[in-house]
Amino acid sequence: MKISVIIPMYNEEDNVSRTLVEVNSTMKDYEDYEIVVVDDGSKDDTFRLAEEVSSHNSHIKVIKQPVNMGMGRALRTGFEKSEGDILVTIDADLSYSPSHINKLVSELLNDETIDIAVGSPYMEGGSVKNVPFSRLFISKAANKFVGFSMTENLSTVTSVLRAYRREVLESMDLESNGTNINLEILSKAIATRYKIKEVPARLEGRELGSSKLKFRSKTISHVLFSLYEKPMILFGVIGLILCLIGLIGGIYLFYQYIIGTLDPTRPLIIFSVLMIISGIQILIFGFVATQISLLKREVYIVQKENRLIRKDLKK
């Protein structure tokens, strides 16, 4: 069974040599493996340095994208160009030690029922070291919020540290170009009933170079993804708040009616009625959006089955 390790890189000249040497050292435990480096349009010496290392190691394959297209596009390119039966994705800055690769692959090799193994620093047994408090707080909050929108009880959903069976990815029509690809894969995997297992991981702060992620845009995109996955989070909260405002206004008006001070021409009456009606309408919108989301998951299942059928026919 061939193992492919896919490493997306963007302006990682400080990490290229060290990362490839350490990952290759870890992969020597396997008879058949490849390391696929996808340079995502770097403006520094990332591509040149990666090419230099690969020239002395036939297991390393370097692919260059003409411009920076995002982590999602880099990973999709790696999935397409790799040849392994098991595909492992890992960060270029080694915020997760290459030793995690063995742990993830072992989960898939030892249990045929597991389709995806996810490295998780936030589950019991996982740990975090030397990560700035602000980034750690944002990361944990994002994983909690986004994880709530998924039916599986996963503690880490944004991490790139994962191992997949090839057939899992081949059954999906992936679209994301940015970091949301990690969420998209999990969402579609859950919808199509693939089995996911979390494995304790140790997350460490970057030692060399600077992070390329824009936390503000990343946070916004994750929030939007969550609302897309579970629209009732948005519609439900807003609808309930409006109904509550209308109900409070109605109770106040009823109290005035009881004590005989109610003025039927007060705008508050119309306002309360409008709040309740609007709240109910938004809740209905949320219900309809939820049904559409469920229908979307059924479409994923059909797409999965069609892709697997076409694959069997080609064989």
Give the tags.
315 residues, alpha/beta, Spore Coat Polysaccharide Biosynthesis Protein SpsA, Chain A, 2 domains, seven-stranded mixed β-sheet, two-stranded parallel sheet, 10 helices, 14% strand, elongated
Report on this structure.
By secondary structure, the chain is of the alpha/beta class. The protein has helices spanning 16-27, 46-54, 71-81, 99-110, 133-148, 166-170, 181-191, 215-229, 232-259, 267-314; strands at residues 3-9, 33-40, 60-65, 86-89, 116-120, 127-129, 162-165, 196-200, 202-204. The chain folds into two domains: 3-228, Spore Coat Polysaccharide Biosynthesis Protein SpsA, Chain A, CATH 3.90.550; 232-314, no CATH class. Strands 3-2-1-4-7-5-8 form a seven-stranded mixed beta sheet, sandwiched between helices. A two-stranded parallel ribbon has the order 6-9. Strand 1, helix 1 (16-27) and strand 2 form a beta-alpha-beta unit. It is elongated and about 90 Å long.
Q: Describe the sheet with the most strands.
A: 7 strands, mixed
Structural class: alpha/beta
Number-wise, the strands total 9
Q: Provide a count of the helices.
A: 10
Task: State the helicity in percent bands.
Answer: 40-55%
| Architecture per CATH nomenclature, i.e. the level-2 architecture of the largest domain | Alpha-Beta Complex
Distance between the termini: 18 Å
Taken as a percent bin, the fraction of beta residues is: 5-15%
Poorly predicted spans: none
Give the neighbour order of strands across the main sheet. Answer: 3-2-1-4-7-5-8
Number of domains: 2
State the CATH topology of the largest domain.
Spore Coat Polysaccharide Biosynthesis Protein SpsA, Chain A
Q: What is the succession of H and E elements?
A: EHEHEHEHEEHEHHEEHHH
Q: Radius of gyration, rounded?
A: 24 Å
- The CATH homologous superfamily of the largest domain is termed Spore Coat Polysaccharide Biosynthesis Protein SpsA, Chain A
How confident overall, as mean pLDDT?
84
CATH class of the largest domain: Alpha Beta
Q: Oligomer, anyone?
A: single chain
The coarse overall form would be elongated
